[in-house]
Amino acid sequence: QSSPDYSAPRISGSPVIEPSGTVINLAFDEALVFDDINAKNGFTIRIGDDTLANADFDLVNLQAPAGGAAPAAASGGLQIKLLNGKQAYNDQTLSVSYDNTKLANFEDGLKDNAATPNQVTPFTVLVDTSAVTATSPDTNAPSLQGPASFDGTGKEFAVSFDESIKVEDSLKLKPALTI
User: What is the torsional sign of CA 136, 140, 145, 148?
Assistant: First the structure.
């Protein structure tokens, strides 16, 4: 007969994000049991300065492979799938926090399958996003950098912007300029 399990599951190793930036994997040292809908209330997922709403992610319980895990592998895990176009980019900070005291029903939280279940203690982890293939999109319009400069004749001038400007058809641009 084995001895009772009094140890709460713990994160094993570092969290990993897939290259798509939409799937986060957290390995644990033992298999987890949880309500995948209600346990979301215990999570706070931050990408940069944005905190995701519960509707923006799903929780998936990852069990160890049949026949037992490889000796160095974790026994279970949690996968967080980002939804509704949400994703992390390789130049953003990503953190995952869990706090079971935020749950309406304590039993819905992350725990093991012991005779007397051991609840996962609150945690916050930073996820290394360097594996993500995409960089966050540029959402800032170019802005002028200083006054216009004129050539010696006074007939030609140049303006500088804080980033490169792409002009595909200067004839279409001309009516939009006012001098």
Answer: positive
Question: What gap in Å lies between CA 61 and CA 68, rounded to an integer?
Answer: 16
Tens-digit pLDDT profile for residues 92-151: 999 999 999 999 998 899 999 988 999 999 999 999 999 999 998 888 888 888 888 888
Residues 57-105 have pLDDT tens digits of: 999 998 755 554 444 445 789 999 999 999 999 999 999 999 999 999 9
39 DSSP 8-state letter: G
Tokens of 47: 């990408």
CA angle 103, 108, 111 (to 5 degrees): 110
Task: Write b or e for each residue in 75-108: b if 16 or more Cβ atoms lie within 10 A of its Cβ, otherwise e.
Answer: bbbbebebeeebbbbbebebebebebeebeeeeb
Task: Please name the residues in contact with 148: beta carbons below 8 A apart, sequence gap of 6 or more.
Answer: 157, 158, 159
Antiparallel, parallel or unpaired: β 57-63 and 23-28: unpaired
Q: What span, in angstroms and rounded, lies between the C-alpha atoms of 141 and 61? A: 42
CA 11 – CA 159 distance, rounded (Å): 54
Taking the alpha carbons at both ends of the chain, their separation in whole angstroms is: 88
- In angstroms, the CA 64 to CA 28 distance is 10
- How far apart CA 79 and CA 153 sit, in angstroms, is 65
